[in-house]
Amino acid sequence: MNREVIFTYTLRVYNRLVEKYGDVFDCSYRTVAGYFSKRKKEIYGNEAGSLPLEHIHGEAQADFGDADYYENGKLYNGKYLNLSFPYSNKGYFQVFKGENQECLFEGLISMFEYIGGVPTRIWFDNASTIVTKILKNGERNLTDAFLRFMTHYRFEAAFCNANSGHEKGNVEGKVGYHRRNMLVPVPRFKNLILFNEELLQKCDKDAQREHYRKDATIEELYANDKAELLSLPKTKLDVSKYITVKTNDYGRFYLKNGLHEYSVSPKYSKTSVLLKITANEVIPMDESYREIVRHERFYGRYKQQSMKWLPYLTQLSRRPGALKYTGIYQMLPESMHNYLEKCDKSSKGKVLQMISTLTEMNGFECAIKTVDNALKHEVTDTDSLLNLHRRIHGNYVELPPIQLSDNIPELSCVISDFKVYDRKLEKSGGRI
Fold first, then answer.
1. H-helix or E-strand spanning residue 103
2. What's the CA gap between 251 and 270, in Å, rounded?
């Protein structure tokens, strides 16, 4: 066992003793750790010892860890995929919202492309995304998707024995190292893709330190690993998942046993739609395999909904007379209902088309904010909507009022006498 594993086991024993005996148990953690170490040697003797391993240049180990982070202010309890090279102790990692097949493949591809090659052999756990069955002779039945991925990138896959993740101890140590040094405190960022690009660069900078055992830096040793890497294939493999789903009356569909709801378009209600699913996105596609809309992929076992309003607003603008009789109308925010009630029957189509345009420009939430302001100003024409939207969401600088100096005299109130103009008109015979 490595030190981290021993510490985890010892701490678990200590906590269980405290929980069971409470105030009666007055031993310190150090006492429990000493007893644990002594009894371990008595029980296992020399069998508990481990043989030093020689790591081969160009081989790597892969494993996931848990990672909390904030993206655009929202907290995610995500995962991060680690790839480490035991010979040099160099490691890379990528952060995701989950630990599925798409995350594994996309993470590995990102790291392959960044380092400019593919490890000759990669060690894995027996995750269900890779292994379907462990056979008696130690061989594995692998998933079709992983076989295709492995064949395309031409590396050899090796697997730990069942319940023996410590056999790839280098990457297990790297999981903890990356968390402590690059994910604490909990990171905050706006874009996960850009954050992952930064992480790869940080991993390169981290490799400038000395190796914990060898007389060289990690980067210097990594040169031997890099020399053995396989070349990248000429074509990048599409590792997206493709499935077909059935939409409901409103052109929406569900994933994750009905917990995650996504929209398509009213045009595609009660029909079958092909989905392209990546690690971070869900993309419904039309009959010609063209993108209809694009959703951020949900994670978590709770109800979530993603609604892309543009196709719905476009459809409503073409048939404004049927607006109230569609289920889509009930889905609109209350402020939208109030605004459309104030519009003339003849102008509703144009207004809906303008809201559709504003949605395409800056998103539905920004369009609704514009509608809210239009209600306050009691304007219902499309020109006012557009001008309000540009003022609220455009790059306009609000200038402070001009402060006049004391030496500028105040203007007296001027009262116009229109009778003067009347007399002039009379003298000129009605012409001026």
1. helix 101-115
2. 7
